[in-house]
Every structure is written in structure tokens, then in C-alpha cells.
Amino acid sequence: MLLKDKICVITGAASSHSIGRATAILLAENGAKIAVLDVHGGVVDAAAALAEQYPASGCMALQCDITSQEECEAARDAVIARFGRVDALIHSAGIMKPAKYNEISPAEYELVMGVNLRGTFNIVTAFATTMAAQKSGSIVNVASVAAQRGGGLFGGAHYAASKGGVLSLTRTLARELGSANVRVNAICPSLIATDFVSEAMSADRLDELSTAIPLGRPGRPEEVAGACMFLASDLSTYMTGATLDVNGGIHIH
């Protein structure tokens, strides 16, 4: 199995149809020991379901608000106390608020930037410290095609800007952590059929947006999970500072 006995932490895994949950399932199927993290209490049920389906995963739940540096460090400490080390962090937690630039309130701007950018900094640096000390590790940040093409599908200017910041942060940390044998990469999905998307728009609107995608359909969470597993695994040991596009061809560059 590709990740046998690797210790992997996955954020944003509470929702049943999310990139985080799909990634947790795929990693567990491939032998990883996993911890799932989310701000929502549903992460406890998610961990219980994963542990029942994949007993060897030893899945643990971490309820954590990533906008809090202290909570991120506490989550890291809990993983180390349980498993002794951490081999991969797949960070997919985030928030999206569709709005035109002149409709974004200061409160909404702070919320989106706080979760998506400051939250990424908090959770990544917490685990990067441990990985640097053990001289190994892989960090995967889930950004968005919105960061590359300036929005245009779903989400507002604040969302695109926050995910652009995630890409810059990823590249900077890749440079800083390379000498410690810690890799930092990013994934840019496009329109993915998650719970959030299905709840935020009608099926007709989803079909309309899909006409702009060369593959003609939204992506599935498990299709993004496959890219996450590749970057977390030893198949990608000479990749750092890279961005993988999982976008159905909506942005070819």
C-alpha cells in the first residue's frame, strides 16, 4: 500500500462529500494512520465512521479552529502524543463566499481571508515545525483555480485573493523548508461537486458552469484526493513548490 503506516493529517474532513473526507478515505485505503481535523463537531462522527471502516487507520478526530494559532498547535501536539510523528498534512479546510467586489463587506473579507490565508499559515506552520525537526514530511495545500485565473467560476475577489496567498505561501515555505527535507506543494481544483457547491447553487446553474469546462462536468472530490495522495506519498519525493491543476481543463497554461 502506498502510504502504509504513514501518519497523515487531513483538514476539512467533517463533511461527507468534501475533498477532505475523500482524501481521508483514500489515504486510509492505502494504509495510512490518519487524523481528521475540522472546526465542526461533525468531525467526531467522521472519525468514528472512518475508524470503523478502516480499523488499521486508528483514525482520530481533532476539532480545531484554524484561525487560532493556539488551537492549531494543540492539534499538532495531540497527533504527536497519539502517533509519535507526522508524515503528511493535507490542508483542504476553507471557506467560500460568492460576491461581487462591491458587495463584499469588511466582515466577510476578514472572515474569508482569516480562514483561508491566516488559517493556512497557522495550521501549516504548526505542523511544519515538527516536520522540520524530524527532517521529513510533506505538506499539501488545496488552493483553487480562482487564484490562477482571477475567479470567474464561483467565489468572490476576496476568495481568489486568499487562495492566491496560499499559492505564494506554499512556494515560500517550499524554499525555506527544503533543507529540512520537508516538501510543500499545492493543488488547484476547479468546480468540484462537494456538499458546499451543491447547496450553494441549483443543478441548472451547475450544468451552465460546466459548459465552460473542456471535460464537460464538475470534478469529483475523489479526483482531487488522488492528487493529494500523490503529493503526500513517496511517488513525489522530488517535487516541492509545485502546483498541480485538477481542473478539467478550465485553465490551461
From TrEMBL:
Q: Which GO terms describe its molecular function?
A: oxidoreductase activity, acting on the CH-OH group of donors, NAD or NADP as acceptor
Known Pfam families for this protein? adh_short_C2
State the InterPro entries in the record: NAD(P)-bd_dom_sf, Sc_DH/Rdtase_CS, SDR_fam
Highest taxon above the source species = Bacteria
One GO process term, biological-process aspect: fatty acid elongation
Q: Which family does it belong to?
A: Belongs to the short-chain dehydrogenases/reductases (SDR) family.
Name the chain's protein.
Answer: NAD(P)-dependent dehydrogenase (Short-subunit alcohol dehydrogenase family)
What organism does the record attribute this protein to?
Answer: Rhizobium wenxiniae
